[in-house]
Amino acid sequence: MKAIGRNLIIEKIKEKQRDGLESVTIDCSEGQPRIWLKNVSYDYDSIEFVQLPHTKTQVLVNLGIPKGALSSGKYPDGTGLARLEFIINDEIRIHPNALIEFDSLVRRYGVLLDHRKKIENIKKSDLYHKDPFNREILKLKETIDTIREITTGYDDKEEYYIEKLAEGIATIAAGVWKVLPNGEIGECVVRLSDFKTNEYANLVGGWIYEGEENNPMLGFRGCSRYVHEEFQEAFILELKAIKKAREWGLINIVPMLPFCRSPEEAKRIIEIMEEEGLVRGQNGLKVYVMAEIPSNIICADIFCEYFDGFSIGSNDLTQLTYGVGRDNEKMIPLMNSYDYNTNSESIRRSVSHLIKTAHERNRKVGICGQAPSDDPDFLRFLIREGIDSISLNFDTFARGRINTWRTEIIESKLTEENKKNTYKFLDKCDNLIDNIRIPRGKLRNMVRKQRKEADKKLLEATEKFDNIFEEISEISYNFIRDLNQGDLKAFDKLYNKYDEKITKCEIEIPKLTEQIREFGIF
User: Fold this and answer.
1) Which residues pair with 255 in a beta bridge?
2) What is the pLDDT of residue 4?
3) Which DSSP string corresponds to 442-493?
4) 102-105 contact pairs (CB < 8 A, 24+)
């Protein structure tokens, strides 16, 4: 959350406190933080991660802040997207060029002071404090002072950048380090910096180096920065950090390049990496690339010459395929109405072509984004196409692993007609669970508030909702488990057995819902 956002929230809370604010609820369970200035009812599940089923398709997590990897990195098959900009934004906070040119900035500040002194001698008065020249001097001084404060203990400012990046990368790589069932070490795919111009400008010293761009999303970002003389030295610092972390023994680190527009750009970057001692194939080093631009798909065979794998960035690929900004509020309903979204024919054809082309050349393909988690139909498509991995935010990891396990079994074992019936059955189970979440959450919240004073009827109703929640979860899980282990010729018998169970739950839920109206829950 940016500082300006924090300040507004704090002021709002103080204002509400004067009006008698009693509760603040903060929710960080769905990727984006949400805040309510009241007590909010909520529901939760207890997940035994070690009991999650194994899948052929690797289910990875997206990670940003390094310390988060120590808790959320233990169970996934690795990380498919560790964003370097999170480390830069949270741990470093300074524009890399301001660190590279720190001594020059100090000299520049001295020169500006001399110029101001000459002007004041000529005018025989102090320069007005709001004069643009004076304000630039003050802003530069503040920048230099802030850099000195943040980098205390580091005379070499470039070393500060390298050390902090390496520490952050290494923490994530260590957090996901494990031997997988196939004997491989869980990969830590580190996407090198992909700040846009406006985002780099927000870093300390960024105002010195970043200009204005009408459309930063399509501008000076990703690999274009790496090959440009204005940013190449900063890119090399990132490479030094990757190399340092790997030299600490964390050879599961896989650097990944974002927004690589052409094979020629890829070729030059691979050359720069080799110049810095990062050679593909040496000490097991792999290099991946984001597949988020139509050129990555169209020229996939050529990109395979320079990279060992692809990670599909479905958001950028969708907006660049259809020419639609993903943040345009007016376009969002049109995207869904007229099918220019992620789960569309054009994106499916692109993904299918990429997987086929990459696999023919022994290259991996993954996807890092919420599309497989948010859209079960898109997940089914990816499994059918043979995607190697999906990488999800940790809050959807468990659900993603279970859905992947279910989909792999269904797609590999059933006829088309039986697949259709099975997916319909699972959708019914999932919808029933979603329908009882709100009343179940409200009941449990009331019990938490009343504690020992909770009414007996309230406790009984809460237990009934918990029981039916668990029952539906077990029905959907056991059906797939038995499907995987049983005789597929007896599919109809197995299906009817579990369909009968879920039908009983469908009949029971409205009765339970009716009973809890006396507690003010509708």
Assistant:
1) 190
2) 42
3) HHHHHHHHHGGG--HHHHHHHHHHHHHHHHHHHHHHHHHHHHHHS-GGGHHH
4) 102/144, 102/147, 102/157, 105/140, 105/143, 105/144, 105/205, 105/208
Q: In this predicted model, which residue has the larger pLDDT, 64 or 285?
A: 285
346: tokens are 């054009």
pLDDT of residue 6: 57
DSSP result, 332-387: HHHHHHTT-SSSSHHHHHHHHHHHHHHHHTT-EEEEESSHHHH-HHHHHHHHHHT-
Task: Write the single-letter amino acid at 336.
Answer: N
User: Residue 388 — very low, low, confident or very high, per pLDDT cuts 50/70/90?
Assistant: very high
Cα–Cα distance measured from residue 210 to residue 225, given in angstroms and rounded to the nearest whole number: 12
Residues 82-135: pLDDT tens digits?
999 999 999 999 999 999 999 999 999 999 999 888 887 887 787 777 788 888
The answer to whether the Cα torsion of 503, 508, 509, 510 is positive or negative is: positive
User: Count of alpha carbons within 13 Å of 231, Cβ hemisphere only?
Assistant: 22
Distance of CA 294 to the CA centre of its chain: 21
Which residues of 102-169 form beta strands (DSSP E)? none
Q: Is 75 helix (H, G, I), strand (E, B) or coil?
A: coil
Token readout for 374 is 């948010």
**How far from chain centre, in Å, is Cα 161?**
23
